[in-house]
Amino acid sequence: MKSKDRAGAGRSIDMIHGSIWNKLPIFALPVAATSILEQLFNAADLAVVGRFTGKMGTLSMAAVGANTPVTGLILNLFLGISLGANVVIAHAVGEGRDDTVQKAVGTAVLFSFFAGVVVTICGEIFAPMILRSMSVPEKVLPLAVLYLRIYLVGLPVIFLYNFEAAIFRAIGKTQMPLMALVVSGALNVVLNLIFVIGFKRTVDGVATATVIANCVSSAFLFWRLMREQTVIHLARQRLRVDWATLKRILRIGLPAGIQSAVFCVANIVIQSAVNSLGAAVMAGSSAALNLEYLIYASILAYGQASTTFVGQNDGAGKPDRCVRVMWLCLIESFIVCGAFMALIWTFAKPLLGLFNTDPRVIHYGYVKLGLLFSGYFFAIVYEVMSGYLRGFGISLLPAVLTIFGVCVFRLLWIFLYFPSHHTFRQLMMAYPISFGITMILIGTALIIRRPARRRN
């Protein structure tokens, strides 16, 4: 069945006709803004429990922070899987197959919700065991378990939001997920203050606020899908799992999800190494993290733009246009990310001073930013190239190479090199070197596979 209106009304992007360069930032910048806002709202949760829970402030912050590796691992796994839905839908849109698109939309919506239910049940059973295995202090453990149990209740709607966002992004409607996040994020902050200040709650207050806010964002996007006048319209009769479509989504998305999950594991190990260097190093590294995320969110956004634009154009049988997408993504991401890096680097010390005025903390944050920024141009290349390969449905190869080039290398660096070179600068050198190695691996794979040439 061929689509009569694949772009549709509103703010959908026609990815298979006309110029590309001016459409990429329209797609990528809202995606980056969405990721950055999520980070800011998460920081607001931590700030509220830290400032407004009185004597419980320190313990409450520690409890929320202790859960970050667990929730990050789960969310990154399913964010990666949602990318599979994005690719399948984008490819079908390019082919003009409405029937395939609508099967994928219904499948993605149902799978995400019920996968969230399954993970919630398992998490509720093993929550105390998981946190104890991470050596969470006994004083913090009860609050950490309480936060995690409430947060887990919201996983079905959190997963649903991420998959709904992937559906909208498949046709270029990146503003819609951003709009939903702005509303729910603002609601989350307000509810945090009401529960914590008004009702005198602690971690249970911010966790409950997070669940309610995510219910609102996922319900909003679900309502929008039901009202869509484009090919991604969610019809009630299509709200069922098509197993062949789910298999395609998982084949593409699962490797990306596992890659993201392994990233989290590697980062946990790196954080442990940072912790061994003292409080000033820990504070400086944390301060730099808030600034560096502004850049990396933009890099990831252009990687997703590469995936989605290539997916649609491959489906439309336009391999030469796919290659053009990759090169324009590289050029534009160099310009955008380079401008952000120059701006942050110019004001790095005053910005780091907003988090902590200790000169040692500012110094260590400055060192980390310098080494990370030196490697981010390598990261741009491999993220865009990985996105390009995924747009053709080649997902396992870039995932394996990235896990090896980034995660395995960093673990080897920490366990084999760092013990005899026990300084912060030497530890942070793992980042630019791993980015460079991964760029070489992904670039070599792209040259060997040449997916666009095989489509000709």
Q: Could you explain the architecture of this structure?
A:
This protein has 456 residues and is mainly α. It has 2 domains: 243 residues, no CATH class; 181 residues, no CATH class. 81% of the residues lie in helices and 0% in strands. Helix 3 packs parallel to helix 8 and helix 12 runs parallel beside helix 15.
| Count of discrete structural domains | 2
The helix/strand series, from N terminus to C terminus, equals HHHHHHHHHHHHHHHH
Integer average pLDDT:
89
- Helicity range: over 70%
N-end to C-end Cα span: 24 Å
- Strand composition percent: under 5%
- What coarse outline follows from CA principal-axis ratios? globular
Low-confidence stretches: 1-10
- Return Rg in Å: 22 Å
Number of strands: 0
Please work out how many helical segments DSSP would assign.
16
Structural class: mainly alpha
Q: What profile does the largest beta sheet have?
A: none
SSE inventory with pairings:
Blueprint: H1 24-52, H2 57-95, H3 98-133, H4 141-153, H5 155-170, H6 175-198, H7 203-227, H8 243-275, H9 279-315, H10 319-346, H11 348-353, H12 359-391, H13 396-417, H14 424-428, H15 430-449, H16 451-455
Helix pairs in contact: 1-2, 1-6, 1-9, 2-3, 2-4, 2-5, 2-8, 2-9, 3-4, 3-5, 3-8, 4-7, 5-7, 6-7, 8-13, 9-10, 9-12, 10-12, 12-15, 13-15
